[in-house]
Amino acid sequence: MTYTLFDFLQLIGALGVFIFGMKIFSEGLQNVAGHRLKAILGGMTRNRFTGVLTGFGTTAITQSSTTTTVMTVSFVNAGLLTFVQSTGVIMGANIGTTITAWMVSVFGFKFQITPIALALIGIFFGFMFSRNSRWRNVAEAMVGFGILFIGLEFIKGAVPDIDTNPAMFAFLDGFSEFGYFSLILFVFVGAILTLLTQSSSAATTITLVMLFEGWISFPIAAAMILGENIGTTVTANIAALVGNVYAKRAARFHFFFNVIGVIWMMAIMYPVLHLMDVAIQTFLGTTMSVMDGEIESRANATLAVSLFHTTFNVANVILMFAFVPYLVRFVERIQPDRGGEEEDFHLRYISAGMMSSPGLAVEQVQKEIQRFAGIVETMHDSVYELLFSLKVDREALLKRIHQYERTTDRLEIEISDYLVSMSERSHLEHVTTERIRFMQMMINDLERIADIYYQISKLSERMKENGAEWSEDAAQEIAHMMDGLRDAIQFMSHNVCEEPEAVDLKKAIDLENQVDALRDRYREAHFARLEAGKYTPSAGVTFIDVLNRLERIGDHVLNVNESASGRRLKAMRIMGLIGQET
After folding, report:
1. Which tens digit of pLDDT belongs to each residue from 332-370?
2. Helices (H), strands (E): how many in the chain?
3. For 132, left (φ over 0), alpha (ψ -120 to 50), or beta?
4. Rounded CA separation 85/297 (Å)
């Protein structure tokens, strides 16, 4: 046996080069697609059939079914997709992932593509330093494509030769002598291989190389491909562990869908493999069977495995399409919605991890900011209730307001960390960088609004403890001020759901001006009441303090609207720099 530890390390290194090339290729394609990827994902919401096409298209762009399924789980977790809508995307992703096998089989074994890959790198390498982001992204994809096939060539060279390593081949061949049970065994081997590489594309490539080099037979390679279809579901299930119940259901559906497919395919495995053999012989015009393992037929055998991979996934989608509602109900039964989710202090919508596409990551952050704005709106109503409701349980309400304030503190930190991680990515488009900057401003202002509401709740409680009370007209003025502020906050919540160009900044400015006008009018009334002795100095101090804090909330609300529009500095110049943070 001549295969040494150094040779094994070269094989691991070659696999690393391949996976690195796949990563660069995938990221480049996603950046080239840009906002069009979001448009493709918009097709998810129509029906299961368009969902299948969407899943196929997205996987073709990302070159990773894992990316598509994790993305889908994240979108379900964010409420951008329903569980039922996600099922079509997951089925389409299974078909889309077969493209990698065809690409490797055709270009990696049937043609000498390494010289072409090196030429591609030579042509496009210079464009990676271009100031034009589109050319830079295209160059990144092409360089990644070249590295991918150079890595494949390295893998082929690093796989031990059968003739010089007969003991190793005998060891592996010993596991393939149990007939049908060998196929079952190698299904598990394929699943484990995918778990170790964390990439079904890498696992598929290793399987094809082993087949091409003669280490495994065509039936064993097909069984490993089935196992890799199961192994690829694990990543999405891991991502769903920190997601909500709907994200977990989407991940479970992917697992059971693939497992059921593998079970029925294993029942008819040998007839299907024979059919693949006949199809390849017919298409290539040869009489050489891919089953015999001869050197001349190994390249054809890789094509047969790719055909088997595609046939299996397409047939599984067709056969299971009508049974999806039953599988959905089964998943809902084993993953019930227990309801009554208590308020936590963590992200909900981006908890499944960083999206591979910056544009889609921005969409997730926007969803989290919408939740942030919703908490602020709830805090406004709670403080209003604390100030003016006579039947409220003040202790419980104060505790709830404090919990909201803690939630917003944690949200600001975690969203900010996520945005920083996004901004550290290289080659982000200028529009994405600007959007990230404005989102940072939005969460800072939202957190400050929550702080001020919490401070007002403490002022209210202190006034209650001191036995101080506002006069009827003073209480009415604070109520009017809060009514005007509620309109501004509700409009702010609407704007953070919109694209920047759809934000109505003029109306936001008008609402903030109304709040300022109320503050000025009620401040004058306050001084008149003090002079007339209508309430105690203590109650008067609390009144003017609450009034000024409410006006500052209006300033922060306008800041959020400006950031949502992406025109904050321009708006401040229009207003003569009013509405600045104090």
Report:
1. 888 886 654 444 445 666 654 555 567 667 877 888 898
2. 24, 0
3. beta
4. 43
| Pair 152, 205: CB distance under 8 Å | yes
Residue recorded with tokens 């697992």: 255
Backbone phi, psi, residue 21, to 5°: -60, -40
* pTM, to two decimals: 0.61
Positive/negative CA dihedral, 120, 359, 235, 304: negative
Per-residue pLDDT tens over the stretch 223-251: 999 998 898 887 677 766 766 677 788 88
> Using CA atoms, how far apart are residues 515 and 536, in angstroms rounded to an integer?
26
Identify the pLDDT of residue 441: 92
Q: Which helix (H) or strand (E) holds 563?
A: helix 537-565
Helices (H), 424-536: 430-465, 472-495, 505-532
Q: Is 220 left (phi over 0), alpha (psi -120 to 50) or beta?
A: alpha
Single out the residue of 192, 197, 224, 195 nearest to residue 208, CA to CA: 224
- Which domains can be identified in the chain, with CATH numbers? 5-334 (no CATH), 361-574 (1.20.58.220)
- Measured distance CA(96)–CA(200) in Å, rounded: 12
- Three-state SS for 148? helix
Spatial neighbors of 519 by CB under 8 A, at least 6 apart, are 481, 547, 548, 550, 551, 554
